[in-house]
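Contributing new records

If you add data, match the layout below exactly. Sequence lines come first and carry their own label; structure lines follow with theirs. Keep one chain per record. Anything else will be rejected by the validation script.
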Amino acid sequence: MKRCAVFVGLCCFLHLLLLDHVSLGLGLVCRLRRALCRRRHKQRMSLRERLVGAAGLSEHQYEAHMAKTPSVGICVTGEARSFERSNVRGSLRLLVDHLPKPLLRISVSRKTRPRPSNRWRVGQQAAEMTLEYAQLANEFPEAFIELLDDSNCSLAHVRKSACCRNGEAPQTFMQYQAITRCVRELMATATAGALTHVVRLRADAIYDDPITLASIILNVSATRPTLAAKDEMRRRTHPTDTLMVSPASVASDFFRTFVDPIEEECQTKNKARLANQPQPEMTWHLCAIGVYDCGFRTKFDVAPFAHYLVDLTGRPRCSRWIHMNVTRCFERGYAALQAGKERWHEDAAWKAAQVSSVAAGSNKSAHLLMPTAPAHTSPPSHFG
């Protein structure tokens, strides 16, 4: 915030000195920069800070409020891709910080398989994540974490599937069975009965406005699942499976619609047409609305869950063939990456200050000077 204040002050000083037509442009820059600074400050505030501080609730009122709030189960699945990058994980951490009573499961494959690019899909190179389990456990202490060596038919939980009959690893099948398995295991936990929402996220996704996104997630339909709209893309009226939200009451049945038709096709037709779709969410969409007969139909909503994907080089995956506004895609994507980077810097600064205070002595005065931990860095129960 100090750097923001200096920049805004300089803008306003130049605004007074320079000519009218120049100062008009500078004034606009000042206003935009001031809005960005306020937004960043707001993002750094935890739910407790916003309710206790901004809303003026007492601690007792806060605890009573949280007793009535929803609880969100979160499944992060898929190939690791850019999840090894700390700013990508920092963006996920910011979103989790702003969801009430999160129950988090991370199940990702270390290996990223190569795939070619085409007009409607960005390609990717092969890679392998070297991130250690201990690092993830430190960053997400509340999470169940599973790091798979690969995403193929050698995994014990899919080895006997009909889709793995030939020892191959159908891409769509592996992707959707991972989602379904994560949701099933999430709903089987002891605390799952308190869940009101279940969210599926990708490991390489980032979020430029986690506060607004958390609010949208909590206000989706109480009876129907909601998929993210491709609102930044040319086919923006279609849903995407990169971010999905379901009421907990229908989550198990909903997420099974992604993998059950594939399993059935592999068993009864001895082929894997659905298991190898290059655009699996499009096929699911056509099945769900009854264009294709896949043995199921389901009602769902589409909502603008703003999020972006990051490639292996650490850049937002923006393409003029895919996105309506490439400039906006890059701007928001880089803003989300910067916010994710700053999330860990705040933790490091707090820990360094804590160590310095402890080293200064353990007497009462030193204790009183002990820095207060940022609310969003508290262990599992940041929400009381």
